[in-house]
Amino acid sequence: MRKTTVAAKESGGITQHLGAFVVSMPSGASITFLDTPGHAAFTAMRACSAAVTDIVTLVVAADDGIMPQTLEAMSHAKETNTPVVVAINECDKPGADPERVRIQLGSEGLPLEDLGGDVQVVEISALTGTGLDKLEEALLLQAELMDLIPHKRML
User: Fold this and answer.
1) For a designed S-S bond to 95, which of 63, 64, 78, 130 qualifies (C-beta 3.0 to 4.6 A apart)?
2) Domain ranges in the chain?
3) Is pTM, for the whole model, over 0.85?
């Protein structure tokens, strides 16, 4: 959403630092993100981030499926009672299987909207920008449901 390649600047091509950034969205809204590394060595950092986050955006690669860090992030969100919005990324890659990811997430106990739950799932491509508008909508809807967005007063 912020059109950068954070991992490209990191050793080994993986994110190794906690990042915080504000993205001005096309709708005019601003969303603040805490970006935590996915590598297993950073589990404590992710646990702390979940504790101070309003909404967890769980990003899962459509070609890889859920990984141990995905399960860990789901556990942190559950422990802190933090709502989750799932972004299935890399849907444009060969071998991408978003439906398999949905099945995996559901089988691990994440109550997806597709299956009657309350967790929104959005298919995206961070590379091409496909679906990012729908991710914005999902995050803003979740924020509104949580009463995180100030309501405009009618005069």
Assistant:
1) 63
2) 7-145
3) no
| Size of the chain in residues | 155
**Residues in Cβ contact with 153 at an 8 Å cutoff, skipping those fewer than 6 apart:** none
Give me the torsion for CA of 141, 119, 39, 95, rounded to 10°.
-100
Give every strand in the sheet of 56-61, ordered side by side.
Answer: 56-61, 84-89, 120-123
Q: Please, which contacts does 42-48 make with residues 24 or more away whose CB atoms are closer than 8 Å? A: 42/16, 43/69, 43/72, 45/18, 46/72, 46/73, 46/76, 47/76
Residue 150: pLDDT band by 50, 70, 90 thresholds?
A: low
Tens of pLDDT, residues 83-125: 999 999 999 999 999 999 999 999 999 999 988 999 999 999 9
Q: 76 CB contacts (<8 Å, ≥6 apart)?
A: 46, 47, 49, 50, 51, 56, 82
- For residue 117, the tally of other CB atoms under 10 A from its CB is 14
Residue type, 152: K
With respect to CATH, is domain 7-145 assigned 1.10.1040.10? Answer: no
Find the distance separating the first CA and the last CA of the chain, reported in whole Å: 34
